[in-house]
Amino acid sequence: MSISLQKGQKIRLAKESGTALDRVILGLGWDVAAKKKGILSFLGGGEIDLDASCLMFDEARQLVDVVWFEQLRSRDGSIQHTGDNVTGAGEGDDEQIIVELSRVPAQVASLVFVVNSFSGQSFERVQNAFCRLLDASNQQEFATYQLNAQGDHTAMIMAKLYRHAGEWRMHAIGAYAQGKTVQSLLPVVINHI
Question: For 42-52, what is the mean pLDDT?
Answer without folding.
Answer: 66
